[in-house]
Design goal:
Helix 2 crosses helix 3 and helix 4 packs antiparallel against helix 10. A hairpin with a 2-residue loop joins strand 6 and strand 7. The chain starts with a helix and ends with a helix. The chain contains 14 helices and 12 strands. The protein has 2 domains: 216 residues, no CATH class; 173 residues, no CATH class.
Length: 438
């Protein structure tokens, strides 16, 4: 019979945790208000509040064991929030890249710029499509671009320790297409010259990218003439003239993508339909904002799964710590609990009191863990590893209020699980047995 009871409690606990994970914040606030009303207005609620106050007043006497719960949960929340902040920072960097009124055209079926190839003839057709904005001279605001992966020495590494950087060959309209991109040191590259401007993120990651320095890309030497800042994924790139880079990497007149400015965001459907209806083209079209947002989805999921997996493993350890602490606390207060039961206190107030005490410790631990994660990791600069098709992407950890709230929910869930079984034991302990203990 006891086995069936424990099994039922376990199943109910699993359901409760799933619901807790999915419930929005305003529902939780409403539940807290209702619970506070029950504590204040009902007879059993007042009993639970009275027992809780007695238990909380003895925490100083159990500071060592209580600290085990607080530190364990703080560690879980801190690590969880830090790992999730890494994914959030990566996603935000890519989500900020591009806009709704600029488009990127790739060869049909290409997942990324690096895997795309557009011929010169295709580029000329794309540049004349309906919906593209034009400058004061009537020229379409477009940029035929080439993206390749290049190797550069990593800053702070061994002399032969190299990383992959994304090298972008840009056309005449590249600067007008990205008004957020500003030169912060030096100048822009000159067309037809082996000159480079580097993003501030790339400059932090790789050695020798200061203006005036020469760097070797492949078999050729290039001069760094400027540094730019954009606040998005472009910060991790190195730019040069598209014709020069295409020649250096033997790409001829082809390009990997065409980036174009639309007359406005509403012109996207017109532009896409014009390209889809041209039999000379087999291309995919998307807004630059949507393109870069899609690039973040896979990596963000991996980072989130990694964070939740590590957090779950640590949470299991914290739950056992809470169980041990609260079982010991219940055993130490067995006679006190039995006395309360003997003078008329029901089992529900006792259960609620033990649960509230555990969740208070969990709340303190969650707050400490969240604050530490914010102080240490918010704004922390990191970069992804290079792959065969893309270079390293520099980004900053982003500890948002939603992540702190998620960490706090985890802390309270751990406290709930860690306090439930000791609370049930306290409520079910026979009064006569408890009075004989100690």
């Amino acid at each position: 019979m006891r086995f069936l009871f424990n099994l039922g409690v376990l199943l109910a606990l699993i359901v409760a945790i799933v619901v807790w994970a999915l419930v929005p914040w305003y529902v939780i606030v409403a539940l807290v208000v209702l619970f506070a009303g029950w504590l204040v207005l009902s007879r059993r609620g007042k009993q639970a509040a009275s027992v809780t106050s007695v238990g909380v007043s003895t925490l100083k006497q159990r500071l060592g064991s209580s600290s085990v719960v607080i530190v364990g949960i703080a560690g879980v929340v801190g690590v969880l929030v830090a790992l999730l902040a890494m994914g959030e920072g990566y996603s935000e960097t890519l989500r900020k890249t591009g806009s709704d009124d600029t488009v990127m055209v790739l060869r049909g079926g290409s997942a990324t710029e690096v895997s795309s190839v557009l011929s010169r003839d295709s580029i000329l057709v794309i540049e004349q499509a309906a919906g593209i904005a034009r400058d004061g001279q009537g020229k379409p605001i477009t940029s035929g671009e080439i993206v390749v992966a290049a190797n550069l020495p990593v800053k702070g590494g061994a002399p032969d320790d190299e990383g992959s950087v994304q090298l972008r060959g840009a056309g005449d309209g590249a600067w007008a297409l990205r008004p957020n991109l500003k030169i912060i040191a030096g100048r822009k590259f000159q067309p037809g010259m082996r000159e480079l401007v580097v993003g501030q993120g790339a400059q932090r990651q790789f050695a020798g990218l200061e203006p005036g320095r020469d760097v070797k890309l492949g078999a050729q030497t290039w001069k760094v003439v400027g540094v730019f800042a954009s606040g998005d994924a472009m910060d991790s790139e190195v730019w040069g003239d598209a014709d020069v880079i295409a020649e250096a990497y033997r790409r001829g007149s082809s390009r990997t993508s065409v980036v174009a400015k639309l007359t406005d965001a509403k012109a996207f459907d017109t532009f896409k339909a014009a390209l889809a209806g041209d039999p000379r083209l087999q291309v995919d079209v998307d807004t630059t904002l949507n393109y870069f947002s899609k690039q973040s989805e896979g990596m963000s999921k991996v980072m989130r799964v990694m964070g939740i997996t590590v957090g779950t493993i640590m949470a299991i350890g914290a739950i056992f710590g809470a169980l041990n602490t609260m079982f010991a606390a219940v055993a130490a207060r067995a006679r006190e609990i039995a006395t309360l039961r003997a003078i008329g206190f029901r089992g529900v107030p006792v259960v609620v009191a033990v649960m509230l005490e555990t969740m208070l410790l969990a709340l303190i631990g969650g707050l400490i863990g969240g604050v530490l994660a914010w102080l240490i990791f918010n704004g922390w600069t990191a970069s992804t590893l290079a792959t065969g098709t893309t270079g390293q992407l520099a980004f900053t950890f982003k500890v948002t209020p939603s992540l702190l709230w998620e960490g706090l929910k985890w802390a309270l869930a751990i406290g709930f699980v860690g306090g439930l079984f000791p609370a049930l034991r306290a409520a079910r302990l026979p009064v006569t047995t408890a009075l004989r203990e100690l």
